[in-house]
Structures are given as C-alpha cells and as structure tokens.
Give the backbone structure.
Amino acid sequence: MGTKGHLIATRFFSSNASSYDKIVRLTTFYRDSSWKREMMRFMDGKNKQVLDLACGTGILSSFIHNGSSSAKIFGADLTYEYLKLAKNRQSYALLTNSLAEFLPYRDESFDVIVSSYLVKYAELSTMVREHWRVLRKGGKIIIHDFTYPNARIMKLLWHFYFQILNELGKVIRPWKDVFSNLDKLIQQNPWVNNLVKELDIVGFTYISKKYYTCGTSAIVYAKK
Ligand SMILES: C[S@@+](CC[C@H](N)C(=O)[O-])C[C@H]1O[C@@H](n2cnc3c(N)ncnc32)[C@H](O)[C@@H]1O
C-alpha cells in the first residue's frame, strides 16, 4: 500500500542520489549537520539497536556512531539508489528497501528510531503505530524535519529563499521537482502537531517538540 506522500517521495528521489549529500549541505546552509547533532542530544550511550528510518545515503549514521559507538545501526529507505550509497558507508548492520509504514522487523526490535526529512512524506497514523510495534518498552523516537516558520519576517524570507531554489531547479535538473514543490509540501503539512497528537493517542510518553533555526525545522521526541 502506498500513500500520496510516498508517491511524491518516489518522484522526488528517483534520479538524484549521487548529488544528495552536497545538495542537503548547501541548501540548508550547513544547518543539516547541526540539526542532526541536536537529534543526537536526545540519545544516550546505552542505545543498542538503532533504526535510521528513511536513511537515504546514510548521513545520519556517522552522527549516531559518534554519539553511541556500540550502537548497532539498521537503515531502511524506499529508494534503492539511495540505499546503494548508504551501503558504501559500511556503518549499517543491515539495510532494507522498505516503507516506514510497513517495517520488515519483529515486534520490539529497537531501542531508538530516528528519522530526518521523512515525516512529511509519511502516512502518520500508520507510521506511528509501526514505530510503537517495533520499539522495545522504554524505547525512544527522534523525528526531525523542516517546518513552516511562524514569524512574519521569517515567512517572507522563507518564501524568497524558495523562489531562489525554484530558479536553481531550472539548471540543476535532477532537483527541479524537489526545488519547485518542497515549499508547498512543508507549508501544507503541519506535521509537528499532528505527530504529537498521534503519539499521544498510541500511548507514547515524554512527548516533546523543539523548533530550530527560527522555526524552519523541528525535532519531536517521545518514549514508549
Ligand atoms: C531527503 S532524504 C533524507 C535522507 C536522510 N534521512 C538524511 O537525513 O539525509 C528523504 C528520504 O526519505 C525516503 N522516504 C520518503 N518517504 C518514505 C517512506 N514512506 N518510507 C521510507 N522511506 C521514505 C526517500 O526515499 C529519501 O531517501
């Protein structure tokens, strides 16, 4: 079964895996690394089995490894071309070509599930239930993605920035679709509050949300 978000992600990431790392660094003005470091602040050294969901090319794996060197890291992503690059990093115990909503893992397999830039494509309710299923008791989730800023001035800057990205997409062809549609996807998806609601319904505790870089990105944390 697919979702609309999953179809958008399939379209977005079909032909740009090789340039992804460079593009994410440049287009976030190197904020990507600091957001990923912030995610790691929610982890502790005791994490044994970590699932990097929508791992893409595997950028997050080195951050996980630095924060918790004994962690066994598993990766999952729907785009095979991205997984091939993640495999080159040799940080993962196992990589699976799978959807976040339907994980090929047994119940209570993981101590932590992390994801960066996945949630806006995911079918929230199914994904949260799947998180609950594969997490051990006391396990944590750390979910990060872009958000639409609240402050008026930031909104203006944000839209201006996406106009520039849109123009860039005309010359960086493999990223055209992403650069011209990502703003609408983020703006129309109030994922932070929706996710917090779903987590609460399913029974997660210690749910927290934190915004970064003037409200342009957020991390949601919760515990089973
Ligand atoms: C922008 S990349 C992020 C990669 C990586 N997490 C990072 O932080 O660099 C988004 C990834 O999400 C994957 N993705 C999107 N929707 C997904 C879903 N429903 N299940 C699994 N992977 C998904 C895409 O294939 C893509 O590799």
